[in-house]
Amino acid sequence: MKKIATLITALFLLVSCDETFDINRDPDVLPPGQAYSTILPSGIAGVIGAEGSYYAIIGGFWSQFWTQNTTSNQYKDIDQYSIGTNDYQAGWGAMYDALNDIKVIKAKALAEGNTKYYLIATILEVQASQVLTDLYDDIPYAESNNPLILQPKFNTGKEAYDLMIADLKLALSKNLSTSVGDTPAKDDFIFNGDMTKWTKLGNSLLLKLHLRLTEVNPTLAESGVRALINSGAQFLDVDASMHNFEDADSKSNPLFESDRRQLNTTLNLKASTTMYSYLTQKADPRIAKYYEDGGTPAGKANNQGDFLNNATGLSTVILAPTTPAYLMSAEESYFLQAEALARYYGGTGAKSAYDLGVAANFKKYALTPNSLLAAGGAYEYPTAGTLSTQIEAIITQKWIASFPGNGYESFIEQNRTGFPVASTTIPQTSELYVPGHFAVSVRSVIGKNFPKRIVLPNTVKSRNPNAPALKAITLPVWWDVN
Fold it and tell me: pTM of the prediction?
């Protein structure tokens, strides 16, 4: 994991070698018109690199996509819930390094009236901050990355959400047709300057923020969702991804690069019984795209956290160097819409959005879900079911579709909704185990509990007196009231 910082920097090799992308130049002294195209690639690659490596690894374990191989040691601390204040500190640092570039763009764009770069920067800032606050709870937001404030105030999770929602609404309200100055193009690794797509991503992110409030503040969640949908806002229908990766050293997908290439092994990540058993039970063909020997008689999975059992023949997790890394996938957007329609619009349109989400994920693997979505199929949307049953179907499909690099999102959603169902009493070795149910790690160091957050890094606590008191990994973040 120590080489990920090098990976994040090396992602810049993917862009043109033209001097416009010279990241060693000080953006504050660049001629007008060059600063945006110099800093934006840095901000995007930094967020993608951190989320797609550090948090993808942790998210994949805690969403039970994979477990530690029985002959390896690399990720035992994650698998047994023993991440401490001295572990994975670089992830936090990498995210705030990226946010520094993003906030420079945001401030410059606001001052110059460049509403296009202002919208992009705000969306990136909110997306990265949403991941951070949903994993750590209290974070520096309002005062972060301010050169005049070396020890920024920590905003509570609730404060961060209020600020993120307000910032996103403001950016989305600005008139892009009156934008002054440069227009985003090849410096935009996500949409190549297509502002319609950025607006859709912003709307989808705003939808996500409001849906995260369903349990802690149902009234605000509903009013926010209704205001957005009733306004006629359009939502993401394509992937918001960085996708120009190459099968070469320090140029590939961050998860592949950090786990496979830099560690020079394929022996760390093995199929978790949780995901593997569910896909097997449903005869889901994606299993063969997720795991080597997936769905074949030779395929085996390991119980979550049971890395001392000396099992053999375990299915290896399939990772590829050119797989895109997602800020938000099209399917996540569709599932957000499906949940909103199920909760607040009597289910009208929910099935259609759900079906589109499932189909979008299958399409990534050159598969179709036709029989699974058809009447009587394993993934048929439960139109006549209870709201709880419908939410379970939506969130379960979101969980499957988050594989491999967005497991932190499905981990967060499991904490919010309780789906997939988590059992603290039935081990995966039991005949009573239900395929797909989350199981407490066999080697858990926190008893019959699941992790609810990542502990604040010691480097932050020791350097900033404004940092909050350390909180246990089992303590829910503010919106998690289940």
Answer: 0.95
